User: Fold these one by one.
Assistant:
Number 1:
Amino acid sequence: MNSSIWRTALRPLQNSQFRAPAALRHPTQTPSATPATPSTSASPFSTTATLQKRKKQGPTIDPRVTNIRYHLSHPLTPRPLHFSRTRYLRHWTIHRAWMLFLRKRRWAEERDLERQYQAMRAACEHLRCMDENGMEVPKSEAGGQGPDPGTLGPRGKEVGRLYRNAMIKRGVAGSVPVEYARAQVDFPSRDGWNHEWTRN
Amino acid sequence: MALRELPLRTAALTARDVRPVLNAVRPHSLRNASSAAAPAEVEPSSFEVPPPPPEAAQKFDPIARSKARQLKKNPLPPSRYQYRPPKYYRGPLHPHQPPPVSDPASRLFQPGPFSLPRLEQTYQSTIAADLLTLTYQHRPPGYRAPVVEQRLREWTGESPYFKNRPLRPPRGGSALRLLTPHRDFRNIPEIKKVVVHTMVPEAQEDSAHLHVAGMVVQAMTNVRVVAHRARSHVVQWGLKKDKYVAVTADVEREDTFHFLSKLIDVVLPKIKEWKGVAGTSGDGSGNISFGLTADQVAMFPEIEVNYDSYPPKMIPGCHITIHTSATNDQDAYLLLQSIGIPFYGKLKG
């Protein structure tokens, strides 16, 4: 991770090389006080350094993991804000205004949905009391009185046929096509391709 | 007739002559630009007090005053209001009450929102109205819904201990199922929050797995994660009790919509041969869950741009639970389908 620019801003270090904090370092990784002397070679008369048998090392820690641990354990959350009187009043005013704005917006959205709901309700009530000729019948003769909208009234099937059809909710569950969820964005354009474009 | 009109005419003539006088009596706020302004009434102000004499100003030494105050060990109070809200809420009767959540000094204060997500706008403008249309059930005027009685059973028997005993728990479970109210323009299902959960059993041996999983989930959701311990020993899964094995992130408010937008528009279309969310998902009360594998999690844009920072074998899979305000799974399916999450198989219910 190339974040050396702001890492130094967080923890000013002497060397530019990133080293893990002591608490995060594995004990086997810490350099010992007395480094192993190179004189323990197999042939003492040779000046050539021979490869020693590698000592048993502890599990090496991925530097990426060390980095992640470092950033996880350093909370950058600031302490809570304390405002003086003027700033507090300013904040309070803005907060009240924002709450009022939200309330008005919510109210407008709810009125919009209510208008739609009442329109659907009026339309369904109209269909319920309509006979085959499109004439309105008194509400006592219409069907659908109880919890079941398919209940027939005294005039039978000839009243409210469209209403009974509209109230069938059999195919509704899980009926939204995946194309419906297309994000509402300004692109691609309606024209798609400008066929008239030429290079001068 | 003319005699009767005489006083009226006299009054009209008098009024015509009187008009300029009435103009002069008008309030000053209605004056024209050409007419004279009223003399301003100045409130008594503290500036009218004469300034202190110059000798007093010359002799005034704030540093010496401050030092004298320090010697007397009676310094001025600090300029800032030193108040710390209580760390724990001790109940409504405790004299030390925390400030409201909207106060920046509160420990629960969350600034924002900082954005208006596209998904939220789409829900408000289109999806809510369409869901209302789709699930509308007509009730003729005068219809009265049957009242739901107490759904829990009482203890019936001869035993004297049954008297005043709490009601019996519901059959077949520890909690009652939610009741679905009549669909109204006020209770259209909406998205409440998203919970992202990752369980990493390897973290029992090496905590690096847990740390990497936490960082991955934080990067995905923009929410600080919470680590969880194993509740009990499970020998088959190699779980040891009280070891940290999982992290969760509760995504709320605007983060929900940002996370879902990324998931729906970026990650899910990139998954090869993905069938969708199982139609049997859901807990019966409107919360739908599904899972992503490790390589699918790596497709999140935050992980993808920074892929080299994570040890690739330690990137975890995750479970995503979408909490909706729907009270049954069918309404939740409709809502999630309308925001673009596909389902496969026969939908439950």
Number 2:
Amino acid sequence: MIMETRYQRHIQLNEVGTEGQLKIKKAKVLVVGAGGLGCPALQYLTGAGVGVIGIMDPDMVSISNLQRQILFNENDLGKNKALSAKEHLQKLNSKVELKAFPIALNHDNAAEYIVKFDIVLDGTDNFYTRYLISDQCILHNKVMIYGALYKFEGQVSVFNYQNGPSYRCLFPSPPEAGIIPNCSEIGVLGVVSGIIGIYQATETIKVILELGTILNGKLLCINLLNHQSTILTLEKNQKEIDQINTHGTAIPIKNVDCFVDFELSLNQLSSKEKIKWIDVREHDELPRVNHLNPLSHTVSLDLLLNSKDKIIAFCKTGTRSKVFVQKMKNKGIKNCFSLKEGAEELKKWGLKTQN
Amino acid sequence: MEIKLRYFGQLQELTGKSEEVFTVSLDTVGALRQYLIERYPKLDELNFKMAQDNKINSDSSPLNGSLIDLLPPFSGG
């Protein structure tokens, strides 16, 4: 009875009814990224009564998020986004099973999480995670609800729906690192992320209800400055999809520079890559990784500024190296990353790749 | 043949235009891409997609549309 009252405006619709509302209740949606797109989508999916909603985000709420991520407020500053989002959403609808994952989706854990859901809503802000979601959705036959932003514009599409095209059919490979800026680099009008995120929630609900025309094989491009709205059709590229299925796992994209928080894992590196390693630890900390010839963190800035190789800083646990990389970024060194694993793992990796 | 081009996202900044009209005689979508890259060299690094008359085409497709949309990938979220 309570269910009927809460969802009455849905149930009143002939196109939804009690049967449709039950479909929504049975659905499981994973929202990757509780940011500009994820927040508004989460609010509507929770309000709509989606049975199980996963919220994945490793980041903390910062003051510059509040201009568009209006699920959060000033009391959330410094808290993890997934945990904080769950807290707010649970108050909106206590009947929805909300699962907060305060971690980043990566090549090790993606399959484990994605298989538990029917639909994955892509609220990411980087190509690394977007291609990972796309590949995993192909491998596990999940629908991907895509949305992305650029300043006053947005793109929306539904991939892997009823054997339709995937993200790689649209963009087989990502652009070179640093070419396409994300919101934190170039800015975005707050409401644009709200509109695109709600578009994604709309498509999610339509997919659950099998209602209307889904953006399957179609890319919606919206420009909120001039109200230009264009739907482009795109074809499935079976070769791109077969490539993922044959590979059997997601294929990491080469330019991990798109990885927004400047961290990377050893499994994202190829042994052929030229890398300048920087040891951020003190000289007496063990184990040493001399076989990789790491530079000291007191290395001259000029040497790093002129480096064409990827620069990767490491320490014991990946914390000090992150601070170091942030400093380097502030000094204008772009191609610099922090290693998630510590020296122990790096030593093993170094020995393995040298053999 | 007269074609109207519409630039999306970052392509507007790289070309300094949101749209423009050209008269060209080119065979394929790929040939138009090369033509545009010569005109705006910065486009080369963006691996943008091209749609003609609202249909996203590969570079080998014959150029026969009158409305051409140029789409870069978007990253923000």
